[in-house]
Amino acid sequence: MLPIKGINTNNNFLYYVFLSDLFFNQIKREMHGVNLPRVSPTKLGELIIPLPPLSEQSRIITRIRQLFTLF
Q1: Are 27 and 38 in contact (CB under 8 A)?
Q2: What is the DSSP code string of 10-51?
Q3: 14-41 pLDDT, tens per residue?
């Protein structure tokens, strides 16, 4: 688990959040630069990351993994 400003987060949950369209679309909106697109550290700190309680994060991870086994 990774503490973020006093909040316990499950690293696996953050992994799936970072792969999500929600996160990617936020990053895409904040990118600037042509040859080397980037996002400033300030803008990264302003991104919205949904953080349900730790127990719910674990349930979500379990469900995502169950869905992946179907494919």
Answers
A1: no
A2: -HHHHHHHHHSHHHHHHHHHH-B-SSS-B--HHHHHH-----
A3: 999 999 999 999 999 999 888 888 999 8
